[in-house]
Fold this sequence. Notes:
Elements: E1 14-18, H1 21-24, H2 45-52, H3 74-88, E2 92-96, H4 99-102, H5 113-128, E3 132-138, H6 144-150, H7 157-173, E4 179-183, H8 193-197, H9 207-232, E5 237-244, E6 247-249, H10 254-276, H11 281-289, H12 300-306, E7 311-316, E8 320-322, H13 356-370, E9 374-378, H14 396-414, E10 419-425, E11 445-447, E12 459-461, H15 463-473
Amino acid sequence: xxxxxxxxxxxxxxxxxxxxxxxxxxxxxxxxxxxxxxxxxxxxxxxxxxxxxxxxxxxxxxxxxxxxxxxxxxxxxxxxxxxxxxxxxxxxxxxxxxxxxxxxxxxxxxxxxxxxxxxxxxxxxxxxxxxxxxxxxxxxxxxxxxxxxxxxxxxxxxxxxxxxxxxxxxxxxxxxxxxxxxxxxxxxxxxxxxxxxxxxxxxxxxxxxxxxxxxxxxxxxxxxxxxxxxxxxxxxxxxxxxxxxxxxxxxxxxxxxxxxxxxxxxxxxxxxxxxxxxxxxxxxxxxxxxxxxxxxxxxxxxxxxxxxxxxxxxxxxxxxxxxxxxxxxxxxxxxxxxxxxxxxxxxxxxxxxxxxxxxxxxxxxxxxxxxxxxxxxxxxxxxxxxxxxxxxxxxxxxxxxxxxxxxxxxxxxxxxxxxxxxxxxxxxxxxxxxxxxxxxxxxxxxxxxxxxxxxxxxxxxxxxxxxxxxxxxxxxxxx
Length: 479
């Protein structure tokens, strides 16, 4: 495994880890925080049912366990956790701000000072250890008030609410935060519109019309946030964030190859608009064929064109395979994007197919297409970890997964890709976004908590903790 002699990561490369407020903070009603869309998602099979059709229940219920309500209690324990990140040598730490801590209902004129103060303290703690905060403005949550009163991102008024929120953050943290992202995995809106944008579809509605109109509102909001960030913090960088899942054809049949390209475009569309500044021609054909008529106000196209992102942030966990022949129908399990099983790859405990080479492929695809710096802001292995006697956790499978992906990152840099950083998902165990479980663990640090919310919340270092520390110390040479 040893040292890579011929491949170097750039000087100042941003090594770190990434979490989301709603998956880690807890304290869901403390400090004046309002209810968010994440706060009404329970653990287990009901979670996806409600995320897919939230009209079932738009509130919290008695006797139901909601993992985000306490999560791993990062809200009260962040100092202890950041000290551990510093021990690993983190250069940066990606987190999100809970919109409902700043604007509890989303449409207030005045922000909640207690919420703003919490993030001041959090960022100060990071900066104390020379860890750069990388901040996502909206990460899979938004004020429930905006869903109930406006219908989520289907309503154009949300652009103003979001821009007010973003400007509040830029003004407040302009001396502390130099890396921003507008929406986490914005392309997930096309697959799970409630998670991505608080959208509840009504009987008989044209799904594509509602979803792509809401996406347009997010694009305009994102571009206006880019504009505001450049004006308020000229030395900052602000990016988009995309769920990166490259698509392979199952065979070399031209239909499979074309289908793979079409499937890739469902996600690439989001990068195209935010990094190039306009709606590509292929999406216009899709709109025409699916009776989608995007209502744009005068000036929208100019806003998108004038305020493109500085970098592309993205997550990478797996690749996808598509087939147009029904006999190849063994489905890939565990992801919302569908596809069939890749016979050449192994899968994680949750059915996600492990494909390190796919990361190099995706890095090259993005860089060839956009010629903008790239930032891998999520990559990791969700697995079942066992605590052995003496608090030992041998997570060699996680080390192997990360090592293989880092090797491919180094190859992509050698290919000429401008890669600015790598934050593993989640450097500490947290609540899974897809299932709400704690059993699906990603961290270098174990958190004593189970799927039902029982446990002491004690933090325990895993074997991967010291391994990642050496990776950072050697700037990726010692793997």
